[in-house]
Amino acid sequence: MSESTKDLNEMLLMRREKLNQLIEKGKNPFLVEKFNNTHYSSDIQDNFEELEEKEVTVSGRIMSRRGHGKVSFIDLQDSKGRIQIFAKFNILGEETYNDLDLLDLGDIVGIKGEVFKTKMGEISIKANEITIMSKSLQILPEKFHGLKDQDLRYRQRYVDLIVNPEVKETFILRSKMLKAVREYLDERDFLEVETPILSTIAGGANARPFTTHHNALDLDMYMRIANELYLKRLIVGGFDKVYEMGRMFRNEGMSPKHNPEFTNIEIYEAYADYEDMMTLTEELIAHVAEKTLGTTKINYQGVDLDLTPPWKRIDMADAIKEFVGVDFSEINTDEEARAIAKAKGIEVKDEMTRGHIISEMFEEFCESHLIQPTFVTGHPVEVSPLSKRNPDDPRKTNRFEAFINTWEIANAFSELNDPIDQRQRFEDQVKQKESGDHEAHPMDTDFINAIEVGLPPTGGLGIGIDRMIIILTNQPSIRDVLLFPTMKPIES
């Protein structure tokens, strides 16, 4: 055993010994069930003139302790900040004051006392009573260095939140942003709904699902990769404006912008099209920024971004022409497209069509140029199985993806409501799945039945909420905006 490990074990044992001493004195902290606070730390600091010399009660975690002889100072941290506690022998009495020797950093205590300002000018509470409510049996990271190990911060978010106050602020901001999203939609008469997370078909997107098993029905089921098809069923049923914000699950890789479970919102409006969804997207994100940050001009990791509507718009084929120098208006066969792709170093499969090549080339060569908010339109029908065809060029769909900082933030289209066309596209997707594409869309005969009943012209939109929040809160990774990101277990 190393000296550092030995010292750590001795410190942990000392904490347990202090707990035993408290129990022997009849002061088991874990038996305390309730403590009535009158104020938080920030309340006292913001309203000192009103509260000076008044009695208050506060509670929180001990973050530092110093002092000598018969006077001690404790920094107490609650959910709204920190405040100094002044503890004096001749006020607390011998027994209570001596109990301070049994306290450690991280312990949770309640304080009743009088608000005053020290000679150094610090707003403090002069303690009359101290209640020990929880004994921390672990050791918090050293206060000046904090919790720096990034992996450990994600695994032990509870410690991260204690010692890195700015982390808590990020998640408070996240909550405000989610509220602002709902506020924008609710004010425009959209109805928030809930749809199944478990289903027998993983549809609504091209992605690999997580599989589970329902024992009572002896049936394999899937965690949803999207909620699109259920929401469109509701449009069929007569709800004209619906949305759902919640967790989606995709059995795919992890990266700074990918987590297996993530928060997404899908929004559908009857008698609207993808142009309406563009307006909704730029106005919604601008509203969230303005409401929570006070501006639509932000800086993300050193890059200035302007979220003010209207955003730039560009056709996918035009983007390829601009950034790659290939003009697909002059390429009309699959063979020509595959040859061009091979010449550009793209891995080409025999079943790839002109549309697939356009999509691959855009993703490979164009996305990296889309820094400022940009709507990309003109997606090929082959990669848009749920989108309405463009009447001027049926090889394209009336769809857009919104990009910010090179990331896809939103995906939307004029929804395909032709059940004959939809069935054919599903059949094409099934063929792709049979040829090895695990992310191809499955056949969903009940959804076909739903739109055979009659789906009105509809605009649909999905926004990656986590990615939006990453950018708005200036965080480097999706793990920094998820309280508990997916982590590989540590091998024991």
UniProtKB/TrEMBL annotation:
Its EC number is 6.1.1.6. It catalyses: tRNA(Lys) + L-lysine + ATP = L-lysyl-tRNA(Lys) + AMP + diphosphate. PROSITE patterns: AA_TRNA_LIGASE_II. Residues 171-489 form the Aminoacyl-transfer RNA synthetases class-II family profile domain. It is an enzyme of class 6 (ligase). InterPro entries: Aa-tRNA-synt_II, aa-tRNA-synth_II, aa-tRNA-synth_II/BPL/LPL, Lys-tRNA-ligase_II, Lys-tRNA-ligase_II_bac/euk, Lys-tRNA-ligase_II_N, Lys-tRNA-synth_II_C, NA-bd_OB-fold. Its cofactor is Mg(2+). Mg(2+) 2 binds at residue 408. It is found in: Cytoplasm. SUPFAM superfamilies: Class II aaRS and biotin synthetases, Nucleic acid-binding proteins. Binds 3 Mg(2+) ions per subunit. GO terms for molecular function: ATP binding; catalytic activity, acting on a protein; lysine-tRNA ligase activity; magnesium ion binding; transferase activity; tRNA binding. One of its GO terms (cellular component) is cytosol. Mg(2+) 1 binds at residues 401, 408. Keywords: Aminoacyl-tRNA synthetase, ATP-binding, Cytoplasm, Ligase, Magnesium, Metal-binding, Nucleotide-binding, Protein biosynthesis. GO terms for biological process: lysyl-tRNA aminoacylation. Homodimer. NCBIfam families: lysS_bact, PRK00484.1. HAMAP family: Lys_tRNA_synth_class2. This is Lysine--tRNA ligase.
